[in-house]
Design goal:
Low-confidence stretches: 1-22
Strand content: 35-45%
Structural class: mainly beta
Largest sheet: 5 strands, mixed
Number of helices: 2
Mean pLDDT: 81
Helix content: 10-25%
Shape: elongated
Order of helices and strands: HEEEEEEEEHEE
Number of strands: 10
Length: 157
C-alpha cells in the first residue's frame, strides 16, 4: 500500500514539473550570450547590467497566442557574458514573443566616488534607454528551448 501511494505521489510530482509546476502553462528553457561587435560584452568596472525578457504575447493554456506584458528577469554572469531566463519557477518561460530590455547603471559605490561637474546618478541608464522595456529593438520569438546570441550592435538579428 505504501509503495502504491509513493508511486502515485511520484507521478503527480513529475507531471507538475513537466507542466510548469501546476501553473497550466508549458515552459521552455532560454539561455544565451550577450555580445557587442561579436565578442563578449564587457561591463566597465563600477557598473552593473540588468536584463529582462518582457512578454509581448505568449502561448496560453489552449495553445493560442495571447497578449501579455509579464517581465521575466534574467540571470546574467558578467564574467562570461552568459545569461539564463529561469522563469517563474525555474523551468523557463512560456513560448512566445519577447522584447529584451537591457539597462546599465553605476553601482552605488562607483556613483558615490564620482568627482567632477557632470555626475551620473545610480538610476541613470548608461545605455541611454536604447534597450528600455518599451523601446528595445531586441525582439525574439521563442518556440522551444533556445540558446540565443544577443549582439548590442545588431539587435534585430
Amino acid at each position: 500500500m505504501a509503495t502504491r501511494r509513493w508511486f502515485v505521489q511520484f507521478l503527480v510530482g513529475t507531471t507538475a514539473v513537466l507542466h510548469g509546476c501546476g501553473s497550466g502553462e508549458r515552459t521552455v528553457g532560454v539561455t544565451g550570450k550577450l555580445v557587442k561587435n561579436g565578442t563578449k560584452y564587457e561591463i566597465p568596472n563600477g557598473q552593473s547590467l540588468q536584463m529582462t525578457f518582457i512578454a509581448m504575447e505568449i502561448e496560453g493554456a489552449d495553445g493560442k497566442m495571447v497578449p501579455n506584458s509579464d517581465p521575466y528577469p534574467v540571470e546574467y554572469q558578467a564574467d562570461t557574458g552568459v545569461f539564463k531566463v529561469p522563469g517563474r519557477e525555474g523551468y523557463g518561460v512560456p513560448p512566445g514573443k519577447y522584447r529584451v530590455a537591457i539597462s546599465q547603471t553605476m553601482t552605488s559605490e562607483a556613483a558615490s566616488k564620482q568627482k567632477g561637474r557632470k555626475r551620473v546618478h545610480r538610476e541613470d541608464d548608461l545605455l541611454k534607454f536604447k534597450f528600455s522595456e518599451s523601446a528595445s529593438p531586441i525582439i525574439r520569438e521563442i518556440k522551444s528551448a533556445a540558446e540565443l546570441t544577443i549582439d548590442l550592435d545588431k539587435p534585430q538579428e
